[in-house]
């Protein structure tokens, strides 16, 4: 029987009273007692004793939206997130082809390029990649995950050749000119994300993927995360994660969400709330997309982009990916089966569609059960929409780090000053008493919940602007958003998200107290140790 006492620290419990105690007793992965040093040290003289030496303990962080398998995949492919020019990107591709070329039948895969860093915001094209090779298939996804650039060979294998190729609904194949059908290599939304298109890209071996999943978990644990997610589970990925669970590879809890076209096939047994983990993996709900990315200017807005993309009309507002009838039918199927649904929704027009269609689906089913549907990103959600979301029980999970990474671009180009001030309106949700969470959508950005806390509290851009001073929230509320609120989103608030007697000993040890450091220094706080159900899964 493993028993441990942590003492001489600041243990922020995140319970209803927002208690802070000195010491905690853990037994077999469960919290048994909390209190003063004197109280807890006297309980069990045989327990291992860990002197915190004034350090801080929080509940383990909960990632409410992300893509763990995609993180694993990024460990096997080329990272272009640090590229500042197209030329630099091409140079990296050339170096890889010369020094470590793909084997026969393999593709050169990359991710993370951000065209907003490039001159005039231009995307690389097939011509840039073809300058290295037009015979090795190449596919490089955008930082947002909603666009990709491909070379001629990849376009050929995807079927985008000739004048009569078909583009999946909700996708765009950009062309060399407005009056041409010839692709320029840049693909938007379902043109690169459609399941049939993605099948063209070969997958690595099972052993390689197991190793990558193990490494990906170590990345999450290094950020203090004890429960994470994959929001893009198809049939193959479900088998992969079940295989990882069977092989005892998983050390963090992983919550899966099945993509729309396989949701009802994979979630055969009805009911989201009472689904249980198998060796740290469970498939909890369904996932769908209603629009794209604001920084990619494919999010669906009700008012035009501040600066519309080249070649688009002045009233360009982005676009949706599905018609109402399809969305209502999917929501209806989820509600009838008591399945929670997570919905990618960046623009306020997409938010309107989510709200409109979910309300209609509720009317058609008459279901009164609490299913906690989640609006993922909710970047531009309006005040009236928040009112309706609360009425329908829709939970927002905000990508608040957008303010730090792309806030200046949103202010100057994407949304303009007025709308940029309201990106991810966390305080508006807080004032309404809504449960909300914070995420980074990894691998778009790393799952750094400490940075998320700082951004929610400060809302500063890299250029020094404050976007929405009235949308700042207190530090404790930001902590709740990455702990107990995340547990609530997963129907696990009875066993996770706060440090209370009877709950799992999921916790993170920090070198400083986020309640005490200056708010603009929160991101400097270091994760020293991450503990999952009493077992150390990361130690600095």
Structure description:
- This protein is α/β, with parallel strands linked by helices and 540 residues long.
- The protein has two domains: 77-198, Diaminopimelate Epimerase, Chain A, domain 1 (Roll); 211-491 and 498-535, Alpha-Beta Barrel (TIM Barrel), CATH 3.20.20.
- An eight-stranded parallel sheet has the order 8-15-16-17-18-19-20-21.
- Helix 12 runs parallel beside helix 13 (383-392) and helix 17 (449-458) crosses helix 18.
Please sum up the structure shown.
With 540 residues, this protein is α/β, with parallel strands linked by helices. The chain folds into two domains: 122 residues, Diaminopimelate Epimerase, Chain A, domain 1; 319 residues, TIM Barrel (Alpha-Beta Barrel).
Q: Which descriptors apply to this entry?
A:
540 residues, alpha/beta, TIM Barrel, 8-stranded parallel beta sheet, 24 strands
Tally of DSSP β-strands: 24
- The tally of structural domains comes to 2
Top CATH class of the largest domain: Alpha Beta
Q: Which spans have pLDDT < 50 for at least 5 consecutive residues?
A: none
Beta-strand percent range: 15-25%
Number of helices: 19
Strand order in space, largest sheet? 8-15-16-17-18-19-20-21
- Which class of secondary structure composition applies to the elements? alpha/beta
CATH topology-level name of the largest domain: TIM Barrel
Report the radius of gyration as a whole number of Å: 23 Å
Largest sheet: 8 strands, parallel
CATH superfamily of the largest domain: Metal-dependent hydrolases
Distance between the termini: 26 Å
């Amino acid at each position: 029987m493993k028993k441990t006492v942590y003492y001489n620290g600041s243990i922020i419990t995140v319970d209803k009273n927002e208690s802070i105690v000195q010491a905690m007793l853990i037994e077999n992965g469960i919290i048994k007692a909390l209190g003063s040093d004197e109280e807890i040290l006297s309980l069990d003289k045989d327990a291992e004793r860990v002197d915190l030496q004034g350090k801080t303990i929080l509940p383990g962080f909960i990632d409410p939206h992300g893509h763990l398998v995609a993180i694993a995949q990024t460990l096997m492919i080329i990272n272009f997130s640090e590229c500042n020019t197209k030329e630099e990107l091409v140079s990296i591709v050339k170096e890889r082809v010369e020094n470590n070329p793909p084997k026969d039948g393999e593709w050169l895969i990359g991710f993370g390029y951000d065209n907003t860093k490039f001159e005039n915001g231009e995307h690389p094209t097939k011509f840039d990649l073809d300058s290295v090779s037009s015979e090795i298939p190449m596919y490089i996804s955008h930082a947002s995950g909603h666009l990709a650039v491909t070379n001629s060979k990849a376009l050929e294998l995807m079927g985008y050749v000739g004048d009569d190729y078909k583009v999946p609904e909700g996708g765009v194949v950009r062309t060399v000119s407005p009056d041409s059908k010839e692709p320029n290599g840049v693909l938007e939304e379902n043109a690169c994300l459609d399941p049939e298109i993605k099948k063209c890209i070969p997958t690595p071996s099972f052993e390689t993927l197991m190793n990558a999943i193990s490494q990906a978990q170590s990345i999450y644990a290094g950020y203090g995360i004890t429960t994470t997610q994959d929001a893009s589970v198809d049939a193959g990925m479900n088998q992969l994660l079940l295989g990882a669970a069977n092989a005892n590879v998983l050390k963090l809890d992983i919550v899966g969400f099945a993509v729309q076209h396989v949701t009802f096939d994979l979630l055969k047994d009805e009911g989201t709330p009472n689904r249980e983990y198998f060796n740290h993996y469970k498939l909890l709900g369904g996932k769908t997309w209603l629009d794209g990315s604001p920084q990619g200017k494919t999010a669906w807005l009700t008012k035009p982009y501040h600066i519309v993309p080249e070649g688009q009309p002045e009233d360009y507002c982005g676009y949706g990916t599905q018609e109402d009838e399809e969305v209502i039918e999917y929501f209806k199927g989820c509600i009838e089966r008591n399945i929670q649904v997570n919905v990618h929704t960046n623009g306020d027009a997409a938010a309107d569609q989510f709200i409109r269609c979910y309300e209609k689906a509720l009317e058609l089913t008459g279901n009164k059960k609490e299913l906690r549907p989640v609006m993922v990103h909710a970047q531009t959600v309006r005040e009236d929409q928040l009112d309706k979301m609360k009425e329908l029980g829709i939970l927002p999970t905000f990508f608040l780090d957008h303010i730090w990474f792309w806030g200046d671009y949103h202010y100057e180009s994407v949304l303009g000053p007025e709308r940029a001030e309201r990106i991810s309106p966390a305080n508006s949700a807080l004032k309404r008493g809504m449960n909300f969470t914070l995420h980074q959508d990894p691998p778009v950005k790393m799952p750094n919940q400490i940075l998320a806390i700082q951004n929610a509290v400060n809302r500063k851009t890299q250029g020094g602007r404050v976007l929405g001073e009235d949308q700042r929230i207190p530090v404790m509320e930001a902590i709740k958003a990455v702990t107990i609120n995340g547990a609530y989103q997963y129907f696990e608030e009875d066993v996770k998200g706060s440090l209370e007697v009877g709950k799992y000993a999921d916790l993170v040890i920090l070198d400083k107290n986020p309640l005490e450091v200056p708010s603009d220094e929160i991101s400097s706080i270091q994760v020293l140790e991450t503990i999952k159900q009493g077992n150390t899964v990361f130690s600095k």
